[in-house]
Every structure is written in C-alpha cells, then in structure tokens.
Amino acid sequence: MSKPYYDAADLRKFGKITEWSEELGTKFFDYYGKVFEEGALTAREKSLIALAVAHTEQCPYCIDAYTKDTLQRGITKEQMMEAIHVGAAIKSGATLVHGVQMMNKVNKLDG
Amino acid sequence: MATKSLKKLGNDLAQSNKQIEILSNGIFKTGELPTFKDKISETSQFPIKAKKLEILQINVGYMCNQVCDHCHVDAGPDRKEIMTRDTMRQCLEVIKNSGAHTLDLTGGAPEMNPDFRWFVEEAAKVGITDFIVRSNLTIIRANKKYYDLPEFFKKHNVHVVSSMPHWTRGKTDKQRGDGVFDKSIKALQELNAVGYGMPGSDLKLDLVYNPSGAFLPGDQVAMEKDFKKALMDDFGIEFHNLFAITNLPIARFLDYLIASENYEDYMYSLVEAYNPAAVENVMCTNTLSISWDGYLFDCDFNQMLELPVNSKSRHISEFNEELLEGRNIVISQHCYGCTAGAGSSCQGVVA
C-alpha cells in the first residue's frame, strides 16, 4: 500500500525536469556536464568528490549514480569508503567545532 | 566463484535460444526500451552491412583452464569443443586466398588446443604477418608444457592480447578465480622478460579490461593510464595498450545479471549510452568469426548465440568472400554492448 518516497527508477527520469522549465533545466545540465569534465582536476578525482558529497547530502540517487561512476573508473571499494570517511569527518568536525561556540556561551553566562 | 560451465551445470542459459528469448522479450517486447533494430533505424543505420574482410577471428575451442564469472563463451575445463586439424587446414586455405590481413585466435584458452602450435606455424608459413592470440595469461603458468609459450609467441612475432580485469588482486580474483592475479602478474613479467610490451618493442602486448560487475567500462585512455602506473609501480610491468571492452549480456554474464537483479538496469545503461558513431565501426563490419567446427558468424558473440551469418556461404568449407561482403549483419539486443559510449570491440573502443 505505502509507496516509498524514493524510487531508484526515478533517476532515469532526471532529464525530464527540463520539460517543465526548459531553459533552466538545459542550463543546469550543461553546467553539470561541464563541471564533471576533465579540468584542473581529473574526472576520476571529481567522481570521488561527488561520491563523498552524495553521502553528506544523503541523496540516494546521487549515491547510486556515483557508486556506479566510481566503479566504472576502476576505483576500488577501499578508496570509495575512504572518500566517504572524508565527508563524514567534515560533517562530524562541523558539528564539533560548534562546541567552541557552546563553550564561549557557557563561559560568558556562567564563567 | 564458478568452477563449472553453465552447460555442464545444465543451466537453461547454456541454450542459445533461451538467451535470445530473454533478450527479445521483457522490456524490449513491451517497448519500454527500443530494440537494437529500431534504435539503429532512427539514424538510418539499419541494416548494418559487412565491409571488406580484414580480420579472421578463429575460435579454436571452448576449453579453458579458468571459469570466469563474465565469460561470454561459457568456457571452462569441462568444455570439449575443440577445432580439429582438418578444420584448421580449411582455415589456412581461406587465409591464403582471402584479403584478410589479421588472424585472431581465441577460445577458451586457444593454447589448450593440441594443434595450436602447429596451426600458428602453418599460418606463419602462408604469410600471415598480423597474428593475434587472445591469451588468458595464467595458461602460461598452468602446466610445464606451456612454460615456453612466451618464447614460442616471440618466435612467430605473435601479438599477445591478454585479459586483466584490474590492477588489484581482489577485483581480479573475484572475476577470474582465486590465484589468477598472482599467476597473471608472473606471466606478464615473463612476457616482459623476452621483450613483450616493452617501450618501442615490436613484440606487441596489449591488455583487455572488462568490468567486474554490472557497469560499463570507463574511459579507455584514463583506464590505461591507471593500469600502467599501478602495474609499473607495484610489479615493474610494461605493456602497450589497454582495450576497454563492454560485457555483452549473453551466457554467464547474462546469468549473473539476471541472478543479481541487474539485467534491466544494465540494459538501460547500454541503451542510454548508445552512440550512433560507434555503429559505423562495429567489428562485425570487418571481422568474420569462425567456430571450432568451422561455421561462420558475424562475431564471437553471435557464434555463442548460434546466430549464423546471413549468407549462402555458411561454413569454412564453402567460404566465398564475394558472397560474404555486403551481407546484412545479424543483430539482436546484445549488440547494444558494442555501441555503448565509445563503442566496444575486440580491439577496444571504436568511436
């Protein structure tokens, strides 16, 4: 009865977003394609960054897409997991560094 | 890891008609995805026609010392189909009289055919200069009688093309069997030692990469760079070129796709990556595949699907180059494997 909010098959329909806003959609996909081209960073490096960010963004479509993309580039599962840890470290660091704000506030209120 | 062929296991997918049925039904029957014929018709590329014959690819038998997960031949130690010396003689007649300049020996492990060396020597006598052997590498280390293969290849200036799915042990052994990586590395070092694959060497050593799972190969140039760096840094190995080949959805790879519930997604990936430019240069347009029992096919994949050439000349004994040139290539949905992305052939990308 209950349908999931996320359906893996929806990723294939991503391109359809241009149908309801052609100019913006097309500009987005052009930009997206350009971002992932070989540049100052290799396409392989960009794929690993995308995989890590896909996890911090917790986007299931992006996780599916960039898991496949990294595999296609010959990236090993150990490298993939390390990339995710980089994302996780930044996430937890971002939480914990706010601890300084808490400490400042405590010191001001109750110092 | 498999140890027996689908044929030996009595698996339905060992039957070529069962495979064709799967490839023709389901998402292609309902129209969810276009058939290959419809897709190439969109760009007016149907029918694909054979051009001038350049490469004769001879499958000298399905016997192999390995049982790889992805194998489109369903090869293995239990396969008994082996080309006889008589059929080889007929192939030699054709080589002498046809315009083909390249002889491409494949299998199974072609070296396991008892007449393999005789065939290479005889073909060299009739003047074949571009001579490819698709070696799985481990055969060189499989038995003492094969230890001198690098020297034998060198003597006849054979172009060695070898499968190597990854530069790490884990990914290689997962696809090709335990111990395959270490043996392959040793074999590559031995080939390097006699001069194969060295920079500037005429002894050509190329590697074939095909993905270990339900995904397409990455960019061939980038993969070659990664392979070269890793094999040199870790093992001091040199080679010339890397061919990135797409796994076609037939035989054992089809069985894997279905069992792992990846079949539909994989077919979507192939269709989405369809590249009309690759259709122009698919290998069936300049290659003819000959089976162990002498029948003619548009490619090794069609041979496994038992889809014979669309010509009156169907067997090596009645080979007729004029009749074969311009024939319509026999296609089905597996052909999407050769037209995805930069395309795929036994010589790597085509577009």
UniProtKB/TrEMBL annotation, chain A:
Residues 23-101 form the Carboxymuconolactone decarboxylase-like domain. The keyword Signal does not apply. Transmembrane segments: none annotated. Signal peptide: none annotated. This is Carboxymuconolactone decarboxylase. Pfam families: CMD (PF02627). GO terms for molecular function: 4-carboxymuconolactone decarboxylase activity; peroxiredoxin activity. Keywords: Lyase. The keyword Lyase applies. Gene3D superfamilies: AhpD-like. It comes from the Bacteria. Its EC number is 4.1.1.44. It is an enzyme of class 4 (lyase).
